[in-house]
Design brief:
The complex is a heterodimer of chains A (266) and B (424). Chain A is mostly helical. Chain A folds into two domains: 116 residues, Up-down Bundle (Four Helix Bundle (Hemerythrin (Met), subunit A)), CATH 1.20.120; 144 residues, no CATH class. In chain A, 74% of the residues lie in helices and 0% in strands. Chain B is 37% helix and 38% strand. In chain B, strands 4, 5, 6, 7, 8, 9, 10, 11, 16 and 17 form a ten-stranded antiparallel beta sheet that branches. A five-stranded antiparallel beta sheet of chain B has the order 1-19-18-3-2. The chains are: A mainly alpha (266), B alpha+beta (424). The interface between A and B is large, with 43 and 45 residues. The complex binds protoporphyrin IX containing FE (HEM).
Chain lengths: 266, 424
């Protein structure tokens, strides 16, 4: 179907973008924003096409319902946030590595032979508007935490002694975690409301729910560490890495290693 | 006496400390990890196989097979709520005290402030009148005014913390006074009780009657289930009160009970003639009549193209025996068992719907907590209080803006105020 072609083109465009970033000094400033905008537009177009094509198939649902769709939406959120936070991303490595992240996710989602890419109908449990709120808020959160993770990693790699890059990184990190925390909370709450309507229980300690709570607690510790205890530097950087590992486990680990209600995995 | 007071204060200080809060959060997170990697709610055999005999003993000792319902986990949550409550109370007290001590800086100070401007030719009154549209007046003096916008966002943190306590209270209410059960209904069947979940299933009576008008399952072309629909009627004192279609994600709510489309099953009804009299039994029933005791052990819709067959167990002189009946084979259709002529006439398979039934008196408290939590987070992270100080002199008015959180906010706010007056 058309959406598959568009997603392949988008993946290729991400590749071109990263190559441009790596090899061309000129794109660094002037053209970079516009190049990202072009790639992002294609990405958006691919998502919309997939949405429309699901109606042609008679299923009619937003592309937020299976593992493949969650991956391409995740990448879309990362690029979106990179664009929105552009003014704040005064540390270009964060922006560049975020885009590299989008590229890797798109390659995995669109080229891996183990991923089911067909548009599938929704089983009754997934036919709910709350699902859309739930998935979209969660993935905006995951994308913010990904940015925070990059800040954490880059903090450890930045040249020693330059305190200004450290404080820029910390500022971006703080902003990302703030956004991520609000959206993760919204994601957990909308998930609970959905569970209430679908299963009759807003919280049942299913592994995915539990891991989202663990992730939430880690970022709550991050917030209090900085606000109340005045933590900075290594401690916060480490917490943002741990937090994102917990996000990854919530997203992938629970699907592949533990069993539960959230059966995204094939 | 004073010894006791300081002792009590020490305990309270510990109970309300951020340190305890952080420790509790860490312990709760760690226990939750255990609760996802150790199998929950398994049988003893499963545990012994997975973790050996001694491992099982440790698991049982600490209740690790049901972490989220053990006494110590609940205790942790209680402590956490208490800590959060006392910690926030202390904080709230301090914040309220601090905010009531507002003063307007003298005009020399305003002039020196980073984010200030002079509106020449505009009187204090006219500036105040204009700003009052968006700002709240906090203090009004003869030659000075203090106004504020989004002051409530200063209390965003408190909304967050108290909302978490509200959510915990709401869920406690649900745990104490709620119930969970299920009811299964065939098409046309009526019930006025719910089977409760638990180790020893019991039933609870409803003071109304549920009647299943219809139940059906729809599939997509590729065989994936598309829709489960139960048409339900609620009757009270023989009168129909309500009619509703229950689907997954669309529960029925009545008198505090929620009815959810949870699953469905098939039940077969078998029709026999016993000495010429029509009789019917279902899968699970034992048939007893004039000394004949029998039950259907197995049902096959088709046995080697010979049509449907049932394996019937019965008692012959006190000994259990079994025999197959085939509907479409003359010789296998009629048999003499237990001294009676038994003929297998037909079988009919009915779908039955399974509705999950819950009652949760805390649900609206939980929902309110959710809304308050989101509201609190939004105000804390995306809004910040802005104060505007005004001092008038003979030729104009000094305006200064102060935002507690970020300097950029003050700058932006001042620009907005400036353009407001210069545009006029
Ligand atoms: C998981 C539960 C919790 C959540 C989601 C939470 C959330 C937050 C958030 C988002 C802030 C930041 C406010 C800001 O940006 O100014 C904050 C601040 C704070 N929290 Fe919590 N909190 C939690 C538990 C606790 C606990 C258990 C304590 C203490 C025992 C605590 C004490 C504080 C304090 C003292 C502040 C600083 C307030 C200030 O800066 O004036 N929190 N909390």
């Amino acid at each position: 179907m058309l959406n598959e072609t568009l997603f392949l083109i988008t993946t290729f465009l991400y590749l071109v973008l990263i190559v441009l970033i790596l090899f061309s000094e000129a794109t660094r400033k002037k053209y970079l924003f516009h190049s990202i905008l072009v790639v992002f537009s294609f990405h958006t177009l691919a998502l919309i096409t997939r949405w429309l094509e699901s109606y042609e198939l008679g299923y009619g649902h937003a592309p937020l319902s299976n593992y493949y769709e969650s991956l391409v939406f995740f990448a879309w959120c990362i690029t979106l946030l990179s664009l929105l936070l552009k003014k704040n991303l005064r540390y270009p490595s964060v922006l560049h590595s975020a885009l590299a992240g989008s590229l890797l996710i798109m390659i995995y989602a669109n080229l891996s032979p183990s991923i089911e890419r067909d548009i599938k109908p929704l089983v009754p449990a997934l036919q709910s508007n709350w699902l859309h709120f739930h998935v979209s808020t969660c993935f905006v959160a995951y994308a913010s935490f990904f940015l925070s993770f990059l800040c954490g990693i880059l903090f450890f790699f930045q040249s020693k002694g330059s305190s200004s890059t450290a404080s820029i990184l910390e500022e971006i990190n703080w902003k990302s975690v703030s956004i991520g925390f609000v959206f993760l909370t919204a994601g957990i709450l909308t998930g609970a409301v959905w569970a209430h309507y679908a299963w009759g229980s807003y919280w049942s300690w299913d592994p995915k729910e539990t891991w989202s709570l663990i992730t939430w607690i880690i970022y709550a510790l991050f917030l209090h560490g900085r606000l109340v205890k005045g933590w900075t530097g290594k401690k916060l950087a480490l917490l943002s890495v741990i937090g994102f590992l917990s996000v990854l486990f919530t997203y992938f680990g629970v699907n592949f290693l533990l069993s539960g209600l959230h059966s995204y995995a094939t | 006496m004073s010894q006791e007071v300081t002792y009590g204060k020490k305990v309270y200080d510990f109970l309300s400390s951020v340190k305890l809060g952080i420790s509790l959060l860490l312990i709760i997170a760690a226990s939750s990890v255990l609760g996802t990697i150790i199998k929950q709610g398994g049988t003893p055999e499963e545990y012994v196989q997975l973790y050996t005999q001694s491992g099982y003993r440790i698991i049982k000792l600490f209740g690790l097979d049901d972490v989220f319902r053990t006494w110590w986990f609940i205790l942790l949550l209680f402590l956490f709520a208490l800590n959060l409550f006392t910690c926030s109370l202390k904080r709230l007290e301090r914040d309220l005290r601090r905010n009531s001590k507002e003063t307007i800086p003298p005009i020399e100070n305003l002039r020196k402030m980073r984010n200030s401007l002079y509106l020449s030719g505009l009187s204090l009154e006219s500036v105040t009148e204009e700003l009052k549209k968006d700002y709240k007046v906090l203090i009004k003096e003869e030659d000075g005014v203090c106004l504020e916008k989004w002051g409530f966002s200063r209390y965003g943190v408190h909304f967050i913390h108290f909302s978490i306590i509200i959510i915990l209270l709401g869920s406690l209410l649900g745990l104490l006074f709620g119930l969970r059960g299920f009811v299964s209904l065939k098409k046309g069947e009526e019930k006025s009780y719910v089977t409760l979940r638990g180790k020893n299933p019991e039933e609870t009576k409803l003071d109304f009657l549920l009647r299943c008008k219809d139940f059906r399952v729809d599939f997509y072309a590729d065989g994936t289930p598309k829709d489960y629909v139960t048409e339900i009627e609620i009757l009270k004192d023989g009168e129909k009160i309500m009619e509703k279609r229950i689907r997954v994600n669309e529960p029925l709510k009545y008198e505090g009970y929620y009815f959810y489309q949870a699953s469905y099953g098939k039940e077969a009804t078998f029709y026999f003639e016993v000495d010429g009299r029509k009789r019917s039994i279902t899968d699970r029933e034992v048939f007893r009549e004039d000394g004949l005791i029998m039950r259907v052990m197995r049902y096959e819709p088709s046995i080697h193209d010979f049509g449907p067959g049932v394996l019937v167990a019965y008692l012959q002189n006190g000994h259990p025996e079994t025999t197959w009946f085939l509907r479409d084979v003359q010789k296998m259709r009629l048999k003499e068992i237990g001294g009676k002529k038994v003929e297998f006439i037909d079988v009919k398979e009915d779908l039955y719907t399974v509705l999950e039934v819950t009652k949760d008196p805390g649900i609206y408290i939980v929902w309110s907590g959710f809304s308050l939590l989101l509201f609190g987070l939004f105000t804390t992270f995306f809004l910040s209080p802005r104060k505007v100080y005004l001092r008038g002199d003979s030729t104009g008015t000094w305006v200064a803006v102060h935002s507690e959180k970020r300097r950029e906010d003050s700058e932006r706010e001042l620009k907005k105020i400036g353009s407001r007056f210069y545009a006029q």
